[in-house]
Structure formats: C-alpha cells, structure tokens
C-alpha cells in the first residue's frame, strides 16, 4: 500500500512537492524583502543593524501569540510562512515605492511640505499599505479558498501578514530613532512600538481577514465582505496615523483604547467560533460511529482542547513520538471533517469535492488509529488501562482484549 502523507491530506493538496504558486509566491516575496532591506541599509548606516535586531527580537513571541488563536485547527505552516513573507516583502517594497512616489509627486506639491506629509500619512499610506497587505488574503481567497474555514483562520493569516510588515517597518523607525536621539530615544520608540502596541498592523489587517473569511465560508457577500473588511482596515490605519502625526496624549489614548477594544473583540470572535465548532463535533461525528472510526468516548475527547492535550500526552507515554503524532493526526482529521460539514451546510462545498475530501479524511482517521495500534502502544495501552477520556466506555485507541485460551474441556 502506498504511504499516505498526513500533512497533504489535512491541507487538502496532492502529496509531493509544494504547489508551484506557493514556490513562486515565496520566491517573489523573499526577493522583495531583500530589496527593501538593501534600500534601508543603504541609507541607514550603523543604525540599520540596531534597528534590524530590535525589530526581529519580539517577532517569535508575537507569532506564537497569534498562533494560540488557531489551536483547534492549526493552519499549514507553508501558508503561514507565505503570509508572513508577503507582508515583509511584497507589501513593504510596494508601500515603500508607492508612498514615496505619492509624497514627492502628489501630496507635497499640492498641499506643501507640512500638510503634504500629514495627508500622505493619514490618507495615502493607509490605502496603499492595507491594500498591499490585504492582497495576500485576496490571493488566498482566490487560490486556496478551502483553506479558510472560519474567522479564526482569516485573523491568523492577517496577523502573519501584519507581523511581517510591522517587522520591516520597525527597522526604519528604530534606525531613525537611534540616529536622531541615540539610545534614549531608541528605547522609548522600542517600548512604544515593540512592547506596548506591537499588534497595530495585525489588528488593522485583521479587518480584511474577517471580510475574506466571511466570503470564503458563505454564499453571499463574495465581493462586498472583503471590500468592507479592507475599508475597515484602511479607516483604522488612518485613525492611528492621524493621531500619531498630530501628536497629543488625548488622541493617542483614544486610538490605543480603540485598538485594545478591537483586540478583545477579535479574541471573543475566535472563542465563540471555537465553541461553535465544538458543538458541531458533537453533531456530525456521531453519524460516523458505524464506521468504527469514532466512539462516543472519543467524541468526548475531541470536543475539548484540554482533553486533546491529555490524549496526546497519553499516546506519547504509551507509544512514544510515533503514537503521539498519530493521535494528533487523528484529532486534526476529525476536526477538518467537521469543518467540511460546516461548509456543506452553508452551501459552499462542491458535492464532488465534498465526497473526495470526506473520504480522504476518514481514511486518514483510520490510518492514524492503525498507526497508533501498530506501535507498542497497543500492548502498553492495555497494560496502562482505559484511556483517560474513555472512563468506563469504549475507545478506538484501546485494542480489543485477546480471546481467552480454551479450557481443558473446550469452550
């Protein structure tokens, strides 16, 4: 039997090398990021290296924070990397060229030096930057629509684009602060942009992410929802830039409070959407009980993130890393199956694709369970007793007890 690639099944792609579009997108984004860094370094001097270091330092923590929103059904690492690189490459270089051209040839000649910079920052830059960042989400909506299963996915992809953009933009801010005011001004700017409010760009672009996610999971609003999301991102970005350009503690306090409220709202959206998915697990998976791939006790495990973690720990304990990975693949395949039914309910799943995708996920659930049982996990699980989520019930991850040997008088 041919070896199955669990990641390919979960990501809904053909096993083998990555898609050509992804390779092209990553290559173009990387080249754009290199060009943007080269231009910045050319005019930056020693301050460039200080700015680059400080811009990179908080990124791993911020990425980890963004990914905590997507623990129930993690997105493919390749797609996340593409989103980040688009923000750091294509969006940054495009904004650098268009913002500079707009400032030199439009706003300053029309409004003068001082007002031209204000108009460019408040009205021009938000339109250019949010359109360029949102283009990554529009590309995914066009090419990988089925990868976006809900608002959480749209928010996470938007956050990755925004973090890539913010990292590159912060290099310039830190570089200028170091050259103009030394370490004291650099420290103040780093605290403001890197610690107090490092999620401004992800928050802006999250509005576009919400619109794209709605379009990907609903039959209506295919054009209106993404454009409305993009408009929301532009407005928020413009408010932020306007308040920062005008200065004053009152204006900055208002935009900080607004962004904090938006952050709370986004977390609430993810929380309620996750609860909805959990309820759907209890609705759809029992229909597959007859296949033997899931029991009522296994559904109890799948509907809770703490129970899922406990199941993976138990699998690693009784069968090592292979068994732990098999349990993780089983859990993700079951979640993808539920989200597939959610798409079908909303009428956005092609019937032929639905059947093919459903069968692939069911096959992966079965193969993952078999992989678990083929390891020493089966015997160890029997000695370890009932899985922690099963109670007195039955679980597909506990092998059947071997029959008792016949007695001296037969059976």
Describe the structure in your own words.
The protein has 411 residues and is an all-alpha fold. The protein folds into 2 domains: 6-246, no CATH class; 284-384, no CATH class. Helix content is 78%, strand content 0%. It is built from 14 helices and no strands. The longest helix is centred in the middle third of the chain and has 46 residues, at 151-196. The radius of gyration is 25 Å and the shape is elongated. The two termini are 38 Å apart. The mean pLDDT is 87. It holds the Pfam family PrsW-protease. The chain crosses the membrane at residues 20-42, 48-67, 79-106, 118-143, 155-175, 195-216, 223-240, 246-272.
Give the H and E element order: HHHHHHHHHHHHHH
Number of helices: 14
Uncertain regions: pLDDT < 50 for 5+ in a row?
none
Largest sheet: none
- Provide the β-strand percentage band: under 5%
Mean pLDDT score, rounded? 87
Number of domains: 2
Q: What does the radius of gyration come to?
A: 25 Å
Helicity, as a percent range: over 70%
Q: How far apart are the termini?
A: 38 Å
> Which secondary-structure class do the elements indicate?
mainly alpha
Shape: elongated
- According to DSSP, the number of beta strands is 0
Main attributes?
411 residues, mainly alpha, 78% helix, elongated
Quickly describe the structure.
Residues 399-411 have a biased composition (Pro residues). The protein is mostly helical.
